[in-house]
Amino acid sequence: MRVTEPWVSVDDVLSHLGVARDSVYRWIEQRGLPAHKVGRIWKFKLSEVDAWVRAGGADMADRPVARRASQRRRRA
Fold first, then answer.
1. CA angle 58-31-37, nearest 5°?
2. pLDDT in single tens digits along all 76 residues of the chain
3. In angstroms, rounded to a whole number, what is the distance separating the alpha carbons of residues 6 and 8?
4. 4: in domain
5. Whether 28 contacts 35, CB under 8 Å
6. CA 52, 54, 58: angle at the middle one, nearest 5?
7. Which pLDDT value is given to residue 34?
8. Could you tell me if residue 2 is inside a domain?
9. Which residues contact 15 (CB under 8 A, 6 or more apart)?
10. How many domains does the chain fold into?
11. C-alpha angle 12-15-17 in degrees, rounded to nearest 5
């Protein structure tokens, strides 16, 4: 008998990764987090999510750093 990996919800991914709901939706939209829409609901395979994280999908190093308030004041 072949066992298939279950589809999980956004709440399951939040718990699995320990991140905020906004992060998950932003990662779907901007960073290609593997997600599949079933009707109006996002579903995930945790093995795909884990592979995406390992590949650096959630890595913040390539995001631009926000300027500090002191840097903004100097330019103003």
1. 110
2. 778 999 999 999 999 999 999 999 999 999 999 999 999 999 999 999 999 999 999 887 555 444 444 444 454 4
3. 6
4. no
5. yes
6. 60
7. 97
8. no
9. none
10. 1
11. 105
